[in-house]
Amino acid sequence: MSATKRMFTIIAVLTIVSMIVTACATATPAPATQAPVAPAQPTATTAPAQPAATAAPPALTIPDIQQGKFNVAVVLVGFHADGGWSQAHTEAAQWLTTQDPTIAVAYLDTVNPGPDAESAMRQLARKGFDLIIGTTFEYGPTMDTLSQEFPKVNWLHVSGYRNNSTNYGDLFGSMEQMKYLAGMVGGARAKADGNTKLGYVAPWPLPEVIRLGNAFMLGVKQTCPECTMEVRWINTWYDPDKEKQAAQSLLDAGVDIVLVGSDTPGPLTAAANAGKWAFTYDYINSCQPASAKCLGTPYWNWGPAYLDIIKQIRAGTWKPKFDFRDAAAGIVGFYGFMPGQTPQPGVPKDVIPQVQAKLADMLAGKFTDQDIFKGPLKDNTGKIIIPDGKTLTVEDLFGIDAATIKSSNLTGYTPCTYCMNWLVDGIQGTIPAMSSQ
User: Of 136, 117, 159, 108, which Cα lies nearest the Cα of 237?
Assistant: First the structure.
């Protein structure tokens, strides 16, 4: 998951975006605020609006295409203005229209994986959308099926590993690089405060979530070898109330720094209310609800990657594949340290040069995922998981084992050796079984 990648200047006038939203999303989202490489610093101080977490969304209305344009539909698992994952995708899609007025964009938000997503995506395909982007791992089986049913539609799955060679590809990035940098900051802050307990609000026990937590902890160990981290599994990507409750549970357990792995900045609000610290996630402006207590944001920069793929599709050169981009490609960033940004006020000054140097190595391709997860590495039981000198493959990072390859009918993958189903030394707790809720 985001190698730190990006740099454009937003100049053109925003084309009005075709939007279809649920009752909780009737307003047009704010224009994109993020330039691909050096986004402007956020200025807002209010938290993004949140729909009621327990409210059942009404039936979706499927948008029409705009004739004569390249029509893109973005299917979101969360609220389009969630202050996190879904807002990052929404603003990236809007940004596309500033770069090319012949691109039209629509989105559907709070679309549950399973039958709801299948119905929505099938209707979008029938409407004639040129590209349908699904933005959660759980959409994978649905998009796999529909890509075969609608071979003239292009399908892009964000965060998955299913693809074919004709009309269905995957896109993701090395977010673990940015989480590692955040860990370096977190360790330094913990050491400065004299409290070595950190916490992680973890959405699902998936390899992606485990990998990012492990990368953060490995970064922490660079600046605070004695630090530890507790985990709260919440079994959801998006539930503002549950995210805050998990953060509060960590704070009540004595944690002073909370790492957010879910989709909203709610845990930051909980931490700030307690006078503590947090790292937000996904969206460049997600520190806004409590910037003074936000130590930084590992964020996604989807726009340039989307534009690149659209150009390939229109030129007839797109070869769908597992497209995993690292920091040097610009798909990820760490807010406070990218070009044109200033570290957050809570970042200890003595760690800033260390983080800047490591980031420079990442952007130059000199420090990659293989360097983060280079052996010897122990899990939190003391067992050597990665032997000395060994590094992880993509299959290891994504936990693609023989059973997954068989059940998902995957091709081009070799079963993982050091599958991402372990917690690195320093993380307290265990990995639970997957739960529906």
Answer: 136
Let me know if 30 is exposed, middle or buried by CB neighbors in 10 A (0-12, 13-18, 19+).
Answer: middle
Give first-to-last CA distance, the chain, whole Å.
23
Residue 327 lies in a domain: no
Confirm whether 326 is domain-assigned: no
CA-CA distance, 369 to 30, in Å (whole number)?
34
Positive or negative, the CA dihedral 354, 209, 57, 142 is positive
Tell me if 328 is assigned to some domain. Answer: no
CATH number of the structural domain spanning residue 250:
3.40.50.2300
pLDDT band at 278 (very low <50, low <70, confident <90, very high): very high
Answer whether residue 32 shows pLDDT above 50. Answer: no
Q: Are 264 and 242 in contact (CB under 8 A)?
A: no
**pTM to 2 decimals?**
0.87
Alpha carbons 177 and 180: distance in angstroms, whole number: 5
The domain total for the chain is 1
Predicted pLDDT of residue 57: 52
The answer to whether residues 204 and 237 touch, using CB atoms and an 8 Å cutoff, is: yes
d(CA 331, CA 354) in angstroms, rounded, equals 22
Q: Single out the residue of 77, 388, 380 nearest to residue 203, CA to CA.
A: 77
For residue range 295-334, list pLDDT tens digits in order: 999 999 999 999 999 999 999 999 999 999 999 999 999 9
Domain that residue 230 falls in: 176-299+333-366
- 158 assigned to some structural domain: no
Express each pLDDT in 79-115 by its tens digit. Answer: 999 999 999 999 999 999 999 999 999 999 999 999 9
